[in-house]
Specification:
Layout lengths: L11 E7 L3 E10 L2 E11 L12 H15 L5 E6 L5 E8 L3 H15 L7 E11 L10 E10 H14 L2 E7 H10 L6 E6 L4 E7 L2 E8 L3 H12 L3 H10 L4 H33 L5 E5 L8 H8 L4 E3 L6 E2 L5 H18 L4
Parallel strand pairs: 1-4, 3-14, 4-8, 9-12, 12-13
Antiparallel strand pairs: 1-2, 2-3, 5-7, 6-7, 9-10, 10-11
The protein binds adenosine-5'-triphosphate (ATP) and magnesium ion (MG).
Length: about 350
């Protein structure tokens, strides 16, 4: 006899964030109209520093396979992200045209912003808004268009990886779009997001729920660990553990801070510069800054950024939108910044 209740079992989606330091997978479903985290898993990518200039796909496939085996996810459907350093996106303004004419104009416009030949990328675009000439301050009607491009070989590599590990890849999306879904939701104000990962840090400004400006900096957790090891003359393993356990808080943290403040300050300066560029171009004030990514869990980082930046700073919390099962809560809270991208991916409705 078939179990009728099977019909009502809610469907879940996996969000797969393949980073340079670790692969993060979360499984999210909807219950009574609310997002619920069902399961999650994290696995480190072995020897990430040596993979700095690109992913070693065999190592990624093996790690992802192991993670899936261990985690017992109930779904095989997944959404994955393409890291910011591998994608290009921008918002442009065009004169008001028919959709067909916009489609024709996009490749010409895109060429100005995308540093790769157009035949080597998948180009995607969507209309964000129309400014008609009846509204104030507008002389000619125009449209705002969001353009995104992903190298075709990156898409192909992801397809191969997901095939190999036996997951159904339902969509590939830009990492920053996943962060907006997980950390910003329906907030329409202008918000700076700083995603501090292993290899790099991406900084973007979202306004009305769309990325308006984004930059990538080749400074992340790996470089900070190396700086700490060099300065304190300790092993890389010891430095990594000091960074995570002591952080830059309290007396002991003072020594760590002294060793890594040049790198942290570089991130702060770059973040400020990106935000000011947006403010100057758009004449819109950024209201707050959200920190995320693995380095966002470092004890004391939030206070340090807040003391140096002239904006309110917080650590992003995807659990403002997604309910975490009670038993998992204490561990999950610590991992929150690390899981933000994968949670946002799993929340994508297909
Ligand atoms: N509690 C912590 N304190 C300090 N640093 C931490 C902590 N947890 C993780 N990190 C650091 O965060 C980095 C990894 O972050 P994350 O998992 O976001 O990177 P990634 O997504 O794999 O990398 P990328 O986005 O650059 O490809 C590592 O350098 C790690 O040392
Ligand atoms: Mg990352």
């Amino acid at each position: 006899m078939a179990f009728q209740w099977f019909k009502f079992r809610s469907k879940t989606m996996l969000g797969v964030d393949i980073g340079t330091a670790a692969i993060k997978v979360t499984e999210v479903g909807k219950e009574g109209g609310r997002w619920v985290l069902k399961n999650y898993g994290i696995i480190a990518i072995p020897d990430p520093v040596s993979l700095k200039d690109g992913f070693a796909d065999d190592a990624i496939s093996a790690a992802l396979k192991e993670l899936i085996k261990k985690s017992n996810f109930s779904s095989k459907d997944c959404v994955a992200s393409i890291p910011s350093f591998n994608t290009f996106s921008t918002v442009i303004e065009l004169p008001y045209l028919s959709e067909k004419d916009i489609a024709r104009a996009i490749p010409f416009e895109a060429k100005k912003y995308i540093p790769l030949p157009l035949q080597e990328v998948n180009l995607d675009w969507s209309i964000l808004s129309v400014k008609d000439s009846t509204s104030s301050n507008v002389q000619y009607p125009s449209v705002e268009v969001f353009i995104a491009a992903v190298p075709k070989d990156t898409v192909e590599r992801y397809r191969i990886i997901f095939n190999r590990v036996g997951l159904r890849l339902k969509a590939l999306e830009l990492e920053n779009a996943a962060l907006i879904r997980a950390l910003i939701g329906n907030d329409q104000s202008s918000i700076g997001v700083v995603n501090m990962g292993g290899r790099s840090t991406s900084i973007f400004v979202a306004y009305k729920g769309v990325v308006r400006l984004s930059r990538n900096y080749e400074v992340g957790g790996f470089e900070i660990t190396q700086a700490l090891a060099r300065s304190l003359k300790v092993s890389v393993d010891r430095a990594e553990s000091m960074k995570k356990k002591i952080g830059i808080e309290g007396n002991e943290g003072g020594t760590v801070l002294k060793a890594i403040n040049t790198e942290l300050d570089r991130l702060i300066v770059e973040g400020e510069r990106t935000i000011e560029t947006f403010e100057d171009q758009k004449k819109i004030k950024v209201e707050k800054i959200i920190l995320t990514g693995g380095l966002g869990t470092m004890p004391g980082i939030h206070k340090y950024f807040e003391s140096k930046l002239h904006y309110p700073v917080s650590v992003g919390d995807p659990f403002a939108r997604v309910i975490a099962p009670q038993g998992l809560s204490p561990v999950i809270k610590e991992l929150t910044p690390t899981l933000s991208v994968s949670i946002g991916l799993a929340m994508r409705e297909i």
